[in-house]
Amino acid sequence: MDLLALGNNGWGDELFFATLMTIAVSITAMIIGFCFALIFTPLKLSKNKFLNFLGNSYTTIIRGVPELLVIYLLFFGGSGAVMYVASIFGYNKYIEINAFITGSFAIGIISGAYSTEVFRGAIQSIDKGQFEASKVLGLKKPIYFLKVIMPQMLRLAVPNLSNVWQITLKDTSLISVTGLVEIMRQSYIAAGSTRDPLFFYSFAAVLYLLLTFLSMKLINRLENKYRRGY
């Protein structure tokens, strides 16, 4: 256990901060994913063929492309795009996009595709009478969506969103390729420095399992909250 000591003699403090980074990226990506889901869920449910095509294209492409490729495209391709725009204005030096922002946004796009499908399925599972009753009462769309539809949608969506959260949490390991020091990256550095990969990769697995276990406890509480009355 000397390898996990705090300070210069061990890797405990580095792994602790790496775990915090993993949590920060996961939460940021999940929020970004929700924003994408709020945009593309109505598109997938739209009767307009063009809007429906846009929504379906987003979820199909993102879910069909490897997550690592999405990260590569945004991190390396994004830097290239920014440098190209900068060169138009006469700036020709290398520009590197912040790894945290790029990683969170890339995983957020992936999370958003899965969240979109979860929200779509949840909304379609709500009894049509709820929509009709809201219209009969004369409620405006924003009001009946927030007061009538969304609470029921969340009740149905939370169990599946727990799976999206777990995917998002595990996908953070992929952004180690950008140089961002999260659990996987820090474990790689520690394993290379001490030449003890079995210990550090096993410990990384324990950290991911612990985060998953704690997450499920919180999500179960949310499920119980939205199940009240059913």
Molecular structure report:
With 230 residues, this protein is mostly helical. It has a single domain (17-178), classed as MetI-like (MetI-like fold, Orthogonal Bundle). It is 79% helix and 0% strand. The protein has helices at residues 12-45, 49-64, 67-88, 99-125, 128-136, 141-171, 183-194, 197-227. Helix 1 packs antiparallel against helix 7. It is flat, with a radius of gyration of 21 Å.
H and E order: HHHHHHHH
- CATH architecture descriptor: Orthogonal Bundle
> In the CATH hierarchy, what is the class?
Mainly Alpha
Query: In CATH terms, what is the fold-level topology?
Result: MetI-like fold
Q: Describe the global form.
A: flat
Helical fraction equals over 70%
Oligomer: single chain
Main pleated sheet: none
Number of domains: 1
- Number of separate strands: 0
Mean pLDDT: 85
Poorly predicted ranges (pLDDT <50, ≥5 residues)?
A: none
Strand content: under 5%
Counting DSSP H or I runs of 4 or more residues, the number of helices is 8
Rg:
21 Å
- State the fourth-level CATH superfamily: MetI-like
Describe the structure concisely for a colleague.
This protein is mainly α and 230 residues long.
